[in-house]
Design a protein that fits this description.
With about 500 residues, the chain is an alpha/beta fold. It has 14 helices and 17 strands. It is globular and about 65 Å long. The N and C termini lie far apart (about 60 Å). About 55% of the residues are buried. GO terms for molecular function: N-acetylglucosamine-6-sulfatase activity.
C-alpha cells in the first residue's frame, strides 16, 4: 500500500585466472612487483570512539560544477581534494555497484543499467548486497542509513516476496526511491513503508533527502552509536529540474568553452566520433541551457551540505565525522562535439570531484595520486576498523587522509565500458543512442590515456602535452609501447583482489 505523506511532515566479464599469465609482460613498464593491498591499520581501529562517516554521492556531477558550489569549495579549503579520482565506468549503475563493493565491473558483473548485463537485479543475483560494505559496517558496530538513489532497476515498492517493501541487508534506516530524476512525483521506501510524494514545492526530492538526513544525524547523536550515512541525490542528472527558488538564477551563464569544446578537427578520432558535426547555434544554446539548469540543480545539493555540516556541528559531531563528497561519474556538454552525456573515456566523463573533511585531515590539501571508486568501500571499512575483504579490487585511502601516499600506490587506473542495449526505461538511453561510444576498455595513466575498442580501434593521448585530449596519437605508438599497454590492459581487465593491486603498478 502506498501511504501519502502528511504535508506538514518532514567488455563482458572474463576469467580471473588469465591475469597471472600476462603480469610479467608488464615488466617493461616496471610492473610485476608485489605489495600490501590495504593502507595499513586503520587510524581508528584501536580507538574507543569510532568516527562517523557521511557520504554525499551526486549523480552525473562534473568537475566544472564545483566552481558554483560554495559549500564544496569550503570543504576543499578545510579538507583534502582528490584531483585525479576516476570511476571504473562512466555509467550510473555500474559505478555505484563498484562503490558498494570495491570491485571492478568485470567482477561485480554489473556492466550496464539494466538486464541482461546490469542493473539492480544482476547486482543482487551476483551477491552484491551481501558483499557490499554496509553489512560489514553493521558488524563493526555502526548504524547505517541510505537516502535517495540506490541502483538502477530498484523498485521501492517491490516486496521481494516479503510482506512489505524490501530493504536490503546492512541498512538500519532506508529512505530510497527508484525514479527521482524529475525531482517530483515519486515513491519513497521509508524503512519498508511506501510513501508518495507529489509536485508541491516541499516535495522537491533533494530537499526531502536533506530534511530526512539531518533528522537521522540528530537521532544518531542521541544514540551515541557511530554511524554511516549515505545521501545519494539524483541531482544533477537529467531532465535537469532545479528547485523553484533557483529556477531563475545564473541567467547569463554559459557552458565553459574549454579547448575541447566543439572540437575543430576530429579526423583522428575513432569511427564512432568522427561523424559528429560541429555544434551550431541551436545545439550550443541547448547546451548552455542545460549547463545553467545543472548549476541551478546543484544549489540545492550545496544547501543540503551546508545543513548537514551545521547539524553535525550543533550535535558536537563535526570533529568526529568524515564528510565525503563525490559523484558516480562525470558528464560532457559540448566537449569533442558531443552534446550532453557520458560513457566516454575522456576525462570529462571518468574524472570526478572527491573531497573529504574530517579528523586528522590537514586543511587545504590536494593529492594528484590516481584513485578510483574501487577505493571507497575499503576506505569506509578501514575508517570503521572493519576488515577489508580480500575480494576488494581497491585499496583504502586512509593513508592519504593522514598526509601520506603509500610508496606502492597505483599509477594506472582501469576504465571498462559495455555499450548498453537500448531500453525505454534507461534514464541514460539518450547517451546510448547511435553515435555513443561502443564497448571499450581503457587505461588512465598519470601522463596518458589509452583506449581499446571492441572494434579494434585505439586511442592514445599524451596528457603532458595534450591535457584536453585533442590529438589521438595511437598510430604513433611504437610496437613495444603498444604491446606493453595492451598487456597491462589485459591484466587489469582480468584481475581480482590483490592481483589488481599488482597489475596497477608499472614502476
Amino acid at each position: 500500500m502506498i501511504r501519502h505523506r502528511r504535508r506538514a511532515a518532514s567488455l563482458l566479464p572474463r576469467p580471473v585466472s588469465a591475469a597471472a599469465a600476462v603480469l610479467c609482460l608488464i615488466a617493461a613498464l616496471g610492473g610485476c612487483s608485489g605489495g600490501k593491498r590495504s593502507g595499513g591499520a586503520s587510524p581508528t581501529a584501536n580507538a574507543e570512539k569510532k568516527p562517523n562517516i557521511v557520504f554525499v554521492l551526486t549523480d552525473d556531477l562534473s568537475w566544472n560544477l564545483v566552481a558554483h558550489m560554495p559549500q564544496v569549495r569550503q570543504m576543499q579549503q578545510g579538507g583534502l581534494t582528490f584531483d585525479n579520482f576516476f570511476v571504473a565506468d562512466s555509467l550510473c549503475c555500474t559505478s555505484r555497484a563498484t562503490i558498494f563493493t570495491g570491485r571492478y565491473p568485470h567482477n561485480t558483473g554489473v556492466r550496464t543499467n539494466f538486464p541482461p548485463d546490469g542493473g539492480y537485479g544482476v547486482f543482487k543475483a551476483r551477491g552484491g548486497e551481501q558483499t557490499a560494505f554496509a553489512p560489514e559496517l553493521q558488524k563493526a558496530g555502526y548504524s547505517t542509513a541510505l537516502f535517495g538513489k540506490y541502483l538502477n532497476g530498484y523498485q521501492p515498492g517491490d516486496t521481494q516476496g516479503g510482506s512489505k517493501p524490501y530493504v536490503p541487508p546492512g541498512w538500519n534506516e532506508w529512505y530510497v526511491t527508484g525514479n527521482g530524476y524529475p525531482e517530483y512525483d515519486y515513491n519513497l521506501n521509508e524503512n519498508g513503508r511506501l510513501v508518495r510524494y507529489g509536485h508541491a514545492p516541499q516535495d522537491y526530492l533533494t530537499d526531502v533527502l536533506s530534511t530526512k538526513a539531518t533528522g537521522f544525524v540528530q537521532r544518531a547523536a542521541a544514540s551515541r552509536q557511530p554511524f554511516y550515512m549515505q545521501v545519494a541525490t539524483f541531482a544533477p542528472h537529467g531532465p535537469f529540474v532545479p528547485a523553484p527558488r533557483h529556477a531563475a538564477a545564473f541567467g547569463t551563464l554559459r557552458a565553459p568553452r574549454t579547448p575541447s569544446f566543439n572540437e575543430t578537427d576530429v579526423r583522428d578520432k575513432p569511427s564512432w566520433l568522427r561523424p559528429h558535426p560541429r555544434l551550431r547555434t541551436p545545439g550550443l544554446r541547448a547546451i548552455d541551457r542545460g549547463f545553467r539548469d545543472r548549476v541551478r540543480m546543484v544549489q540545492a545539493v550545496d544547501e543540503m551540505i551546508a545543513k548537514l555540516r551545521q547539524t553535525l556541528a550543533a550535535q558536537n559531531l563535526d570533529r568526529d565525522t568524515y564528510l565525503v563528497f563525490g559523484s558516480d561519474n562525470g558528464f560532457h556538454m559540448g566537449e569533442h562535439r558531443l552534446a550532453g552525456g557520458k560513457m566516454t573515456a575522456f576525462d570529462t566523463d571518468i574524472r570526478v570531484p572527491v573531497v573529504v573533511t574530517g579528523p586528522g585531515i590537514r586543511p587545504g590539501r590536494r593529492t594528484s595520486a590516481l584513485t578510483q571508486n574501487t577505493d571507497l568501500a575499503p576506505t569506509f571499512l578501514d575508517l570503521a576498523g572493519a576488515p577489508v575483504p580480500p575480494a576488494a579490487d581497491g585499496r583504502s585511502l586512509v593513508p592519504f587522509l593522514r598526509d601520506t601516499e603509500p610508496p606502492d600506490w597505483r599509477d594506472v587506473a582501469l576504465v571498462e565500458h559495455v555499450k548498453p542495449l537500448p531500453s525505454p526505461e534507461d534514464p541514460d538511453r539518450q547517451d546510448s543512442a547511435p553515435g555513443a561510444p561502443p564497448t571499450y576498455n581503457a587505461l588512465r595513466l598519470r601522463d596518458g590515456l589509452y583506449v581499446e575498442y571492441q572494434s579494434g580501434e585505439r586511442e592514445y593521448y599524451d596528457l603532458v602535452h595534450d591535457p584536453d585530449q585533442l590529438v589521438n596519437q595511437a598510430a604513433r605508438l611504437t610496437p613495444d609501447r603498444q604491446r606493453q599497454l595492451s598487456a597491462l590492459l589485459y591484466a587489469l581487465t582480468h584481475c581480482a583482489g590483490a592481483t589488481c593491486t599488482s597489475a596497477s603498478r608499472t614502476r
